[in-house]
Design goal:
alpha+beta, Calcium-transporting ATPase, transmembrane domain, 11-stranded mixed β-sheet, 8-stranded mixed β-sheet, 28 strands
Length: 903
């Protein structure tokens, strides 16, 4: 095949036969492009991606540091100082503004960049035919001329002219606004057809809701219809989580409260005869120091760090709001296959009319052996067995590539279909060889309603239909059964016997699929009538080893785990017992047909649903109803899903969890979280991190406010009694940069208490600070205030020190007390020397840094003059140490004596 170096995009491809489009793009249907040609075309057209939304620039982040009301207040203070001739103080305040901006800029920039990187980790894959093989490649590497294979649940990754379609439907609401899926076919349509009626095309960004097909790429990236639309749409506003909104509201309230208090302090000081400029500077500095302007920054950092930890545990967050909901989750509804089990299906047993055949080998190992009653047999010499294996290979959309030296192969497709290909390969039956002799004419895609799939093949001048599906529907569609003596009629008694065999295999923990076939004279024959039943395939999917300890962790954490599966009730119960979800072999399993849609349940039935640990044969619609019942009862629900029909349930759940390996792209985009490894333990790890993040933010807020309230309290009380101010304006600003910021940031990135998963879940409506936390905050602030004012009185009255030295001692006490106070942020009831705060290396780093800066404030020439501090001497340092340790000592006694705090 000759391929040129330039290929113009076909114009109005929906009007032309697909054969012309392939010719125009110089590609053959069965082969696709080769890698070298794909690279050339990628250079010509670029990567298949939309114009990226601009990330938040460093300049924008820096500019935001100067937009706060607090910075404006500081600027006013600086101007007033310069106007009144206080040049040093004015310049110092401007320096504080710059330093504060730099700290906020660096921390926020790193956090924002971390989250932006995480949001690009989950790349979309597409199945593409390259060099006569179907491969999964990143969607951004698709080029015009590529042949893309589509299945129900796929997100379309480029504009495609369809060349094959079987019951294909697409949801094009993202482009047309039409909510009803559109039927697709391969015939050309009129040139003037609007986008919603171009049935021979599927477009980038839309979703395949049903059926299967193939299409040739006619446009990528910004040349697609979605690209044209996106170029007209302005970038959406940045997402704010409910947690960040609550923090922002808290900060805004505190701004106005502290402004009122600061104004009152200034007026009281001026009326008492104090210097007007001093009181104005004090009031402004007080307002700046009291309001925790770092709340949004720390929230961003805490979220970013938590998301990084989740990503390391294979849980990618799609929506930041999910992080907060994770900490409150108290019910996890999990699928069975691939989540509680390995999702490495292996055909281990075949039930035929007169025989039961065992197959050895696991996973993708194609070197297994066939046996009957312990005796080996050659499948080629067993007619029924050989036909069953052929039908399983023909009625299939998976790909099995050549094996390595160890006999294991590489596969693309559904695990069940891959297992059928592996079973065929063990008998030397290969799909590509079968298709050479029995070319596939059409496919009737799997339908969730019929629970069957069929393919039609040319054979000996006629046609052969291969069918697989759930045992019940396949048996109902079968009129004959193949035996060693040939075909005979299949009656109701036979169907009852086969259903019993199905039940028996399910009780052994096998997933069962039925196989059937028939001959046809025309290619439009009805595939699901008059079938010849061949038998049952039993597939084993062993439970994951790590599930049992993960379930135990959930039980300790007060989280109920519920299995919600489309599988057989007996199989579901067996796997549930194997992983430790239930202990009783007769535990109640609610069948989908008994559950219905949940809208007409009696109160007794509703309570039964709320208490049941297993739901089997559940449809996607019933998942939706189940979530509604749980949420109406006040539960926060996490729901797993992988199919296109699971998308509504994933959206409705408080936490929608999609499977990264076996999940459809539609499910992944609808979910709040994507599990890259499909493991249940990853959900538990994500819940743990959700709890840690919320706890860290709560500790940060509690710590920062208790410190800031103590600052305003010491100034206010001193002003009311006309005593010397315990701390000067620039000293307040210095503390705002030193003792407030670094320890608070350290608390925000802690790794959490080891026992955090032994608590019950948090109430989703619980505020960041409960009544108990406000009481604690008042107590801690009172202790720090008492220590600072007490040491000031002792220094002035008891020891007769001069005022500047005494104020230095009170300033240092107010600086060091919060440093030790950080250890009071450990959980009540936790151990004195073994707790999350003590183990947090960032806390220790912050203490060392802050201590060094405070010592420099006393002894560094120039800085000590600016801050108006003097060497307190040995006695003074002793007073500082004793007084600053007092709040810590009382707080530790309180923490050790208090009961568990989780209310």
């Amino acid at each position: 095949m000759t391929q040129t170096t330039t290929h113009p995009l076909p114009e109005i491809p929906w009007t032309r036969p697909w054969q012309e489009i392939l010719e125009a793009l110089d590609v053959r249907r069965g082969e696709g492009l080769d890698n070298q040609e794909a690279k050339k075309r990628r250079k010509q057209y670029g990567h298949n991606r939309l114009r990226s939304a601009k990330s938040k620039s460093a300049w924008a982040i820096l500019a935001e540091q100067f937009k706060s009301l607090l910075v404006i207040l500081l600027a006013v203070a600086a101007v007033l100082s310069l106007v009144f001739g206080e040049w040093i103080e004015g310049i110092a305040i401007l320096a504080v503004i710059l330093i504060n901006a730099v700290i906020g800029f660096v921390t926020e920039l790193r956090a924002v960049r971390s989250m932006e990187a995480l949001q690009h980790m989950g790349s979309v894959e597409a199945k593409v035919r390259r060099s006569d093989q179907v491969r999964e490649i990143p969607a951004e590497n698709i080029v015009p001329g590529d042949i893309v294979v589509l299945e129900g649940g796929d997100v379309v990754t480029a504009d495609l002219r369809l060349i094959e379609a079987s019951k294909l439907q697409a949801d094009e609401s993202t482009l047309t606004g039409e909510s009803v899926p559109v039927d697709k076919q391969i015939k050309p349509v009129a040139e003037e057809a609007p986008l919603a009626e171009r049935t021979s095309m599927v477009y980038k960004g839309t979703a395949v809701t049903r059926g299967s097909g193939e299409g040739v790429v006619v446009a990528t990236g910004m040349d697609t219809e979605l690209g044209h639309v996106s170029s007209l749409v302005e970038e959406a506003e940045e997402e704010l989580t409910p947690l960040e909104k609550r923090l922002d509201q808290l900060g805004r309230r505190l701004v106005w409260i502290t402004l009122i208090i600061a104004a009152a302090v200034a007026v009281a000081g001026i009326l008492a005869g104090r210097d007007i400029l001093l009181m104005i500077d004090t009031a402004i500095a007080l307002a700046v120091a009291t309001v925790p302007e770092g709340l949004p920054i720390v929230a961003t950092i805490a979220l970013a760090r938590g998301m990084q930890r989740m990503a390391r545990r294979n849980a990618l967050i799609n929506h930041l709001s999910a992080v907060e909901a994770l900490g409150a989750t108290d019910i996890i509804c999990t699928d069975k296959t691939g989540t509680l089990t390995e999702n490495q299906m292996t055909v281990v047993e075949l039930a035929l009319a007169e025989d039961t055949i065992q197959i050895s080998g696991e996973g993708l190992d194609t070197t297994g052996h066939f046996s009957r009653n312990g005796d080996s047999l050659d499948p080629a010499e067993h007619g029924i067995l050989y036909q069953m294996l052929q039908v399983g290979v023909l009625c299939n959309n998976a790909e099995l590539h050549d094996g390595n030296a160890d006999g294991k192969s590489q596969a693309i497709g559904e695990p069940l279909e891959v297992a059928l290909l592996v079973a065929g390969a063990k008998a030397k039956i290969y799909r590509n060889e079968l298709l050479e002799n029995q070319p596939e004419v059409r496919e009737v895609a799997f339908d969730p309603d019929t629970k069957m799939m069929a393919t039609l093949h040319e054979e000996d001048g006629g046609y052969r239909i291969a069918v697989k599906g759930a045992p019940g529907p396949v048996l109902a569609a079968s009129h004959q059964i193949l035996t060693q003596d040939g075909e005979r009629s299949l009656d109701d008694e036979d169907r009852k016997t086969w259903q019993e065999r199905n039940e028996q295999m399910a009780e052994e923990g096998l997933r069962v699929v039925a196989l059937a076939t028939k001959a046809a004279e025309t290619d439009d024959a009805e595939p699901y009538e008059g079938l010849t039943f061949l038998g049952l395939d039993g597939l084993l999917d062993p439970p994951r080893e790590e599930v049992r300890p993960a379930l135990e962790a959930c039980q300790e954490a007060g989280i109920r785990v519920v299995m919600v599966t489309g599988d057989h009730p007996v199989t579901a119960r067996k796997i549930a017992r194997a992983v430790g979800l239930v202990q009783d072999q007769h535990v109640n399993v609610i069948h989908g047909r008994d559950f219905g849609h949940g809208d007409v349940l009696s109160e007794e039935d509703r309570q039964s649903v709320l208490q049941a640990p297993i739901f089997a044969r559940v449809s996607p619609e019933q998942k939706l109803a189940l979530i509604a019942i749980y949420q109406a009862a006040g539960h926060a629900v996490a729901m797993t899903g992988d199919g296109v029909n699971d998308a509504p349930a994933l959206k409705k759940a408080d936490i929608g969890v999609a499977m990264g390996r076996r999940g459809t792209q539609v499910a992944k985009e609808a979910a709040d979280m994507v599990l890259q490894d499909d493991r249940f333990s990853s959900i538990v790890a994500a819940v743990e991190q959700g709890r840690v993040i919320f706890d860290n933010i709560r500790k940060f807020v509690l710590y920062l406010l208790s410190c800031n309230i103590s600052e305003i309290a010491v100034i206010s009380l001193a002003s009311l009694v006309n005593a010397p101010l315990p701390i000067r304006p620039l000293q307040i600003l210095f503390l705002n940069l030193v003792t407030d910021v670094f320890p608070a940031l350290a608390l925000g990135v802690g790794e959490g208490e080891a026992a955090i998963m032994k608590r019950p879940p948090r109430d989703p409506k619980e505020p960041i600070l409960t009544r108990r936390h406000w009481i604690e905050m008042g107590g801690f602030s009172g202790l720090i205030t008492a220590a600072v004012l007490g040491v000031l009185v002792l220094a002035l009255v008891g020891l007769g020190m001069e005022q500047e030295r005494a104020v230095t001692i009170s300033f240092l006490t107010l600086a060091f007390a919060p440093l030790w106070h950080v250890f009071n942020m450990r959980d009540r009831g936790s151990r004195f020397l073994s707790n999350e705060v003590v183990r947090n290396r960032w806390v220790w780093g912050a203490l060392v840094l802050c201590t060094g800066l405070l010592v420099a404030a006393v002894y560094m020439p120039g800085l000590n003059t600016l801050l108006k501090v003097k060497d307190p001497g040995l006695t003074g340092w002793g007073l500082v140490l004793g007084a600053s340790l007092l709040p810590w000592l009382v707080g530790q006694i309180f923490r050790s004596w208090a009961s568990e705090p989780h209310a």
